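MODEL INPUT / OUTPUT PAIR
PAIR INDEX: 1
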Amino acid sequence: YWAWPEVDWSGQRGDLHALQLVFGRPTGRCATTNGPLFAQIDAENVWRWQDRTEIVRERAIIRAWRATAQGRLLDLEFHFTALREPVLLARRGTNAYGGLNIRLAAAKDQRIYKHMALPDAKPRPGWADLSGIFPGAASPAGVSILQNMANPDYPGDWIEYPELNWLQPTFPAAGTRFTLRPGRTLVLRFRLWIHPGATPAISNGTDQWQAANSLFSPPALT
């Protein structure tokens, strides 16, 4: 799921993560696509302050590609636009969790691996992986999270809570608050690679990251 624990609006602070003061609600506008290559959901939500005043319009596009021997790819694209006044987003305490959250079932031999190229690398791949032997399985599997370098504040810090099987690329940058403004849309993109086997080789993960940076352009929601 995706949420921010510090949401500031009109001089108040709510918590979309813990459902305090601000709530994300579906509008009922949802388009689905199904075909031989992928299935997609394109849905609209609004954030409501005290579950009444609409302050942010959110669009979520989730595209699941057909599985192959190498696994399955999921593309995630999120759009956020303030509707009335500026809305500020921040991580917990501005330096902990916030943004896209990935929490899996408990796994035997769990391993969390984070890869970030050196700052002077061009391009600079940023991806991470959580793998293990999950309940009911005899062999390891995992999911790689691939950040898109077009995301503001790229690369986002990696936050992990191994005891919760939790790994996430955070947004915004530590020590900052990102301002959503009316008429200006924030877009965040990620790709998940659900793969058989344990942590992929660095070269394989980097190849997947490079492919992830040519994410789809979804059709307009009608």
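PAIR INDEX: 2
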Amino acid sequence: GTALIVLFSGLILCWLSGLQRKFFLYSILATLVMAPLAWTFVLRDYQKNRITVFLGQGDRHKEGYQIEQARIAIGSGGLWGKGLFNGTQNRLRFLPESRTDFIFAVLCEELGLLGAFAIIICYNLLFFRAFLLIRTLKDVYAQLFVSGLLLHILLATIINIGMVLGIMPIVGIPLPLMSYGLSNLWITIACLGGFQNIMIRCR
């Protein structure tokens, strides 16, 4: 998961820097050509299982257990949720990794659709405001640098919510500012602090 974030962050920065479209076209073609070889020789069994579960295969009591429990948590939350700390999937420990990678499923169960929607709105406001501020920078290199500071937070948010909802394969990516874990929280806050510092000094 972390490797994917680094890869996509680099590709987006290449696109923002004005790299020619041929580079991305050739990259896509090379990826399509190498995909069968990567599936056979690079990916491990547990990584293949994650992809097959995403495609709707696998036993829901084995490989698909985690995403199945996440769906139950999200669906049982309803519109208003069961109340903070009253989610059964988390409290009764049916949902693995409920404090880290699958914290969004817990939030959906306890806060409901409206609470989850409010959280997504807060993320959108954070990123939208940040990228509006980036456009005010006159130095192109400063724009690329602060974009790089924010891109991994943005991609981690999209990937985490996507995998919890079942629209992306499961990877070990925490939800920024929400998931339990000191290292992830420290990196996120450090990146936001660096972003703020550059915005103050370079505008």
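PAIR 2 NOTE: The helical segments are 2-16, 21-42, 45-54, 65-77, 88-91, 103-134, 140-165, 182-202.
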